[in-house]
Request: fold
Amino acid sequence: QVRLVESGGGSVQPGGSLKLSCTASMIFTLDTMGWYRQAPGKQRELVASINKDDDTWYIDSVKGRFTISRDIAKKTWNLQMTSLKPEDTAVYYCHAGGAYSETYWGQGTQVTVSS
Reply:
């Protein structure tokens, strides 16, 4: 069983930046790592992902503003969020997918963008 622990998040004004980090209890078994978010009354959506080949994917609404990266040695992947907008407000969850389709979730962290 892989455990994911998130850090970061918080409140920021529009245009500000935040960094989310997710640390896994083990990383060598993971094929994909990413971040989802869920805003009140909306479905959870995939925001960004990175795979073991360092290929990245972003939802259109965050392209050019968010950057996902990973540090294998630290068993961590990060989501650097810049130019934040009120519509980015949500609970953000880190996610990982294993080689045998197993999935793992972090506990979620609140990101609030408001003036």
Summary: Residues 39 and 90 are 4 Å apart (CA to CA). The chain has a mean pLDDT of 95. The two ends are 40 Å apart (CA to CA). The longest strand covers residues 30-38.
